[in-house]
Amino acid sequence: MNIAKHLAETDRTLFSFEILPPLKGDAIDKVYDNIDPLMAFNPAYINVTYHREEAILKPVGNGLLKRKIIRKRPGTIGLCAAIQARYKVDTVPHLLCGGFTKEDTENALIELDFLGIKNVLALRGDSMKGQKYFTPEEDGNAFAVDLVRQIHDLNNGIYTDEELENKHATDFSIGVAGYPEKHYESPSLNIDIQYLKEKIDAGAGYIVTQMFFDNTVYFRFVKKCREAGINVPIVPGLKPLSTKRQLSIIPTMFNVDIPDELSFKILKCKSNDDVRKVGIEWTIQQSQELKEKGVPALHYYSMGRSKNIEEIAQQVFG
Fold it and tell me: Dihedral of CA 40/278/181/252: which sign?
């Protein structure tokens, strides 16, 4: 299924969600346990995140340290293939600029094409821990728009090796991220939307937003995108809060605001179980309003846990 086309043509609000690959060493069964309850709501597609490498300093004796590169959550491509085979639902692997050369990216796309995975979400990714600014690999893509262009080139049979013969053209549907409250590195929301338009002009077919907790933020963002000439589907991304600690973590990590009304409700909670209930109720209200407004899909960030998403989906899609 071409997700961009499906989103553009749907006459109802679709259900989708995002999962994390298991930590290195964990079995895939933990992922299945989280997906199984959500299949009752007929997800149109499932996103699978990609986590770039991390650098750690490992003692090697005599007070010396050795820099070691690790990947805590490998397996995005294999997990996507396993999910498609098990559940017969399309998967959307995240592809990053960070940690990939252009050849690495091309090889990953070739694998996805062989496996029948025809949808990707193109992201720049964050800087490595310990780095203040994002630094691409040598001969890697520096920005998401560059990654979109490379995928679009492959869709036209253009490979990094110009001397290849019998060049097979792929057929990937490309999604990109949008930031209703702007990307933290952008000087303003309007400039950020111009960057977003470049990604659409380069070949992306739909947008999924960063999480937000105030629907007026999403509606403002969509209006500004349309005024800027962006006419592709814009899918709202939602995340139910579940702990008090997230009141400080989420604004810091994702550069989003949490409305006073929601913040005060959570601060009054006596336990994280109470917070979880408030988060579910808030996200149900968000979802119902967005669905009434005819959004093409509702996309939920599960963060590896599905019980709260299941309770929300029962009210919105049940």
Answer: negative
